[in-house]
Amino acid sequence: MTIRLAKRVNLAVPSAMSGLYSANLSADAVSFAAGQPNERYFPTPAMTRAIDQALAQGGQHLFQYHDVLGNPELRAQLAARIARTGGVSATQDNVVLTVGGQQGLEVIAKTVLNPGDDVIVEGPCYFGALGAFDLCEPTYHTVPLQADGVDLEQLEATLKQYPETKLFYTVPDYQNPTGVTMSVAKRQRLVALANQYDFIILEDSPYRDLGYTGTPLPTIKHFDTQGRVVFLSSFSKILVPGLRVGWLVADGDLLAGIQKMLLASNLGAASVVQEALANYMKENDLDAHMVELKNHYHEQHDAMMAAIQKYVPDAVTVTHPTGGFYYWVTLPQGVDTTAVLANIAAPQAHVTYIPSANFYPQHDVHNGLRLSYSGVTPAQIDAGMRRLGRVLETAIRR
Ligand code: PMP
């Protein structure tokens, strides 16, 4: 018997999202695949206190249904924070809480896209966004990334070719998967293009607070004068992912549409965890936590850079991120990183990564790979990259 599923359930796709590339590894294997935050850095005692406080002080009302947009106090705290760090002029009325950034991606897609609509993504693009957008069956167009963000000339050429484009999706800060950050000039110009060609920008920035040098750039949303940019973020990478709280900033009709889709989706996310996070934000210095967190990840980031310089063959290019969790490696044309992972890296060298095919809507780019260093120690990074360096040399020679 075959169970008849919807077309959108493509069972072959989600190997990267389901964590397959980190599963079933031997004890001494090194995984550069998982993009999870490192749980050794979770502020567990403070978070436990914040949850206890919510339960102790919330009373009966804590367990009632609440505003679909989320806890007003937490929304006000987030509005104040993104105004200060990203130049977004938002109040709590513009902020919506979601079940992780992932639900934000899904809800925004549902709000904006009809089947077949043109969507432009960066090449490469975060696979979780592709998974969420796929539900709306869009027509994808990919515009390559450069060292300072998306190639705007190519973007404009694509817009001329597909003038009905509805949505452009970008991760402008320490992008997943490349680590690339979009320049301020490109942010400004991108909003001008959105105004000219009448499309919506989805600015997904869960890594914005994880810059290891300098100060954060203004958000794309900062330059938005027409309410066509949705800013999306999450607590997953800066505090803990387990509470599943993400948030977005939107205006006007977009905001009203998102609210309607959220009602259909979940009648509002779990209010108890939102109350706990509001307590955490009130009782703790999130900026101080970020300083500590960034010290840890910075050390891993530098260890990865050193290992890349030591072990990666000359024929390979690597991005130069200054924050986040990732480096992107480009091999000569003809090398297939999916095959290399399956045949050599994982089974023989005991080292994993995520192959580039996962980061393209048509799964048609095969000579790249994403390295994540968030979950590995400097010693593991050195050991893993020594192995991967040999694997890549072999792959190039073949
Ligand atoms: N966007 C990007 C760019 C991400 O890297 C992630 C997590 N990998 C998410 C969204 C979603 O994360 P979460 O649902 O945990 O907030």
From TrEMBL:
Keyword Secreted: no
Gene3D superfamilies, per database record: Aspartate Aminotransferase, domain 1 (3.90.1150.10), Type I PLP-dependent aspartate aminotransferase-like (Major domain) (3.40.640.10)
Cofactor(s) this protein cannot do without: pyridoxal 5'-phosphate
Annotated Aminotransferase class I/classII large domain residues: 30-388
GO biological process terms held by the UniProt record: alpha-amino acid metabolic process
This protein's UniProt keywords: Aminotransferase, DNA-binding, Pyridoxal phosphate, Transferase
Family annotation (Pfam families): Aminotran_1_2 (PF00155)
SUPFAM superfamilies: PLP-dependent transferases (SSF53383)
Record GO terms (molecular function): DNA binding; pyridoxal phosphate binding; transaminase activity
InterPro entries: Aminotransferase_I/II_large, Class-I_PLP-dep_aminotransf, PyrdxlP-dep_Trfase, PyrdxlP-dep_Trfase_major, PyrdxlP-dep_Trfase_small
Assembly and interaction partners: Homodimer.
Protein family according to the UniProt entry: Belongs to the class-I pyridoxal-phosphate-dependent aminotransferase family.
UniProt name for this protein: HTH containing DNA-binding domain and MocR-like aminotransferase
